[in-house]
Amino acid sequence: MPEIKVTPLGAGQDVGRSCILVSIGGKNIMLDCGMHMGYNDDRRFPDFSYITQNGRLTDFLDCVIISHFHLDHCGALPYMSEMVGYDGPIYMTHPTKAICPILLEDFRKITVDKKGETNFFTSQMIKDCMKKVVPLNLHQTVQVDDELEIKAYYAGHVLGAAMVHIKVGSESVVYTGDYNMTPDRHLGAAWIDKCRPDILISESTYATTIRDSKRCRERDFLKKVHESIERGGKVLIPVFALGRAQELCILLETFWERMNLKAPIYFSTGLTEKANHYYKLFITWTNQKIRKTFVQRNMFEFKHIKAFDRSYADNPGPMVRLIFHPRVHVFDE
């Protein structure tokens, strides 16, 4: 039996910089191309010199597949394609293609414009990189070439996240990326066809973590927010990942309606606002409840949550403010 070779270029016994090189049936596939939030040196991106020390990566890779838009899975993509050099196909779902460049540009602004780092990808490189993207539809078999085929499945986790089944001849691999088997307020649970891959490569960041029930955690969170508001206080909520921001907004919006609360809720403008536009657009990727009520009301059209303006900071009385900080996001549920 021909061997299947799996080489972690990142995220091997580590959290962050997800990048797995799979060699199967003479084909080389890169699964995710992330960055590590804990480093600012050469360890920030995967070590692509393992693939080749001279020349571009195009001759050594048949395709690249990105599971979802979080930076620990896509943050090195423009560096890999535009600075190291790769001209082949990059596969990701339609929502990932829409949101990925927003996060990459925010990351570039912080790194280059604010921190003053050099030798980093530019805005134009992000655009050029995204031109190489081939969008994937769920459950659609895509023929990369005569022998290599891939099929994407719903992974939950964040909007557009996908697991992928890769086949070359009679051999196959399933790569999960980040996935969630528990549906939340805006996404369904991960789902895949019954299959028997030769190898399963699975996300395992929280594999040994036992948590309190989500309902208990949400109840405690809302209780603390409510107590602060009742005392006339201000609540500051840092949010470290896109997707969690939307989940928190729905949680607070529902609670505010149920309790008939009047205190204002604000979210930081910019990146979250842009992303919310795509959450409204890709409503078919959300869970059944949100899709069912979409005609009457889009759950991402918030009644109680408004964009924050700096002039509101000194307003008297209670308020809640969500602050989105993707650049300190290391890993996510």
Automatic annotation (TrEMBL):
InterPro entries for this protein? Beta_Casp, INTS11-like_MBL-fold, MBL, Metallo-B-lactamas, RibonucZ/Hydroxyglut_hydro
Q: Which Pfam families match?
A: Beta-Casp (PF10996), Lactamase_B_6 (PF16661)
Entry's Gene Ontology molecular function annotations: hydrolase activity; metal ion binding; RNA endonuclease activity
Cell division as a keyword of this entry, yes or no, is no
- What keywords is this UniProt entry annotated with? Cytoplasm, Hydrolase, Metal-binding, Nucleus, Zinc
> Main site of residence?
cytoplasm
Origin: domain of life:
Eukaryota
User: What family does this chain come from, according to its entry?
Assistant: Belongs to the metallo-beta-lactamase superfamily. RNA-metabolizing metallo-beta-lactamase-like family. INTS11 subfamily.
Q: Which cofactor does it need?
A: Zn(2+)
Q: Which CDD domains match?
A: INTS11-like_MBL-fold (cd16291)
Q: Report domain Beta-Casp positions.
A: 245-328
Location(s), subcellular: Cytoplasm; Nucleus
Could you state one GO biological process linked to this protein? snRNA processing
Protein name from the UniProt record: Integrator complex subunit 11
Task: Tell me which residues make up the Metallo-beta-lactamase domain.
Answer: 16-229
Source species? Salarias fasciatus
